[in-house]
Amino acid sequence: MKRIFSGVQPTGTLTLGNYLGALRHWVHLQEDHDCLYCIVDMHAITVFQDPALFKDQTFEIAATYLACGLDPQKSILFVQSHVPAHAQLGWMLGCKTPMGWLNRMTQFKDKAGKDKEKASLGLYGYPCLQAADILLYQTHLVPVGEDQKQHIELTRDIAQSVNSAYDVDLFTLPDPLINTHAARIMSLRDGTKKMSKSDPSDFSRIHLSDDADLIAQKIRKARTDADPLPGSFDQLEGRAEAKNLVTIYAALANMTLDEVCQEFEGALFSAFKPRLSDLLVATITPIGEKIALLMNDKRELELILLDGAQRANELATTTLKAAEETFGFWTP
Ligand code: TYM
């Protein structure tokens, strides 16, 4: 069975982008793959996290995993910092990664902004830790949104370079698995920007915890244009916001992009938006309600995460030991 690994940063309530680009896909994969889904808290501290909120954010992601349909009987669900091998292998891989490769990472450029000198070493070296996450479990496939593709390609390069430098088959080479239907969900305010937890405008995104009224309000205010919908998706060229709303509709309704255009051909957004809201409310609000319920029983979440950490630790230790052996560490 193919091994799957993926993760989310516990930096706030997840968005529709995280759900359609990643989590919804993960739920299907757990049926016929050997899956590990991690809450990557060590990645999250590459930017400041308020300690008083951080623990709860970790629990909230665990609750979100379960509410979206991840099943601890089928997948290993765990917190990254509970498995020390991630940090250990992350350091080892950092020693094998040329700075030139890291300099090309667009996520660092975006997050560091203009003031690169003030960005942390952790933010810069982040892709090495991500490579360790993936390679520790001899992962075959990494289901992610389009924005993570570059990191998975780098992981592959690092794995290949270590394997060939030591002339070993230490790491399995992973491939990204990108859900083409919802690879990149865009902001509701600007169709050229990714929908993101960190956008200053709450109206740029739908949160999995938003209630029906808020979802309807956000869709009503979503930026669009005054033209009617055409009969095929190709004809939406140059209309970024319109494309995004049609993409969201298609992903939620399990339709192709052209099928959505055909169904709404000639309609204005004033007619399309209420239908999109209804679909969103039907999908998102039950998840939000489940998250709220699960957050009332942290003990249950704790037990799931502790069990997951134990199972992940066993798998991770095997690869870490092999890596230490390969690098020539003296291991008593
Ligand atoms: P993060 O926490 O930013 O996002 C989690 C997942 O959601 C996807 N995603 C989107 N997909 C489509 N449209 C969007 N607007 C959108 N926004 C987010 C992301 O692509 C991702 O799949 N570096 C990773 C976390 C990570 C990881 C890993 C992932 C750490 N180690 C190992 C895979 C394997 C991140 O910051 O994801």
Topology:
Elements: E1 3-8, H1 16-29, E2 34-39, H2 41-44, H3 51-68, E3 75-79, H4 85-94, H5 99-103, H6 106-112, H7 121-135, E4 141-144, H8 149-166, E5 175-178, H9 212-221, H10 240-253, H11 257-264, H12 269-294, H13 298-327
Residues 5-9, 17-18, 21-22, 40, 43, 130, 133-134, 142, 144-145, 147-148, 151, 182, 184-185, 194-195 line the site of tryptophanyl-5'AMP (TYM).
Give a short synopsis of this structure.
Helices cover 54% and strands 8% of the residues. With 332 residues, it is mainly alpha-helical. It folds into two domains: 3-183 and 297-327, HUPs (Rossmann fold, 3-Layer(aba) Sandwich), CATH 3.40.50.620; 202-293, Orthogonal Bundle (Tyrosyl-Transfer RNA Synthetase).
Overview of this structure, please?
The chain is mainly α and 332 residues long. It folds into 2 domains: 3-183 and 297-327, Rossmann fold; 202-293, Tyrosyl-Transfer RNA Synthetase. It contains 13 helices and 5 strands. A 3-stranded parallel beta sheet has the order 1-2-3. It has a two-stranded parallel sheet with strand order 4-5. β1, α1 (16-29) and β2 (34-39) form a beta-alpha-beta unit. The protein starts with a strand and ends in a 5-residue tail after the last helix. The model has no long low-confidence stretch (mean pLDDT 96). Residues 5-9, 17-18, 21-22, 40, 43, 130, 133-134, 142, 144-145, 147-148, 151, 182, 184-185, 194-195 line the site of tryptophanyl-5'AMP (TYM).
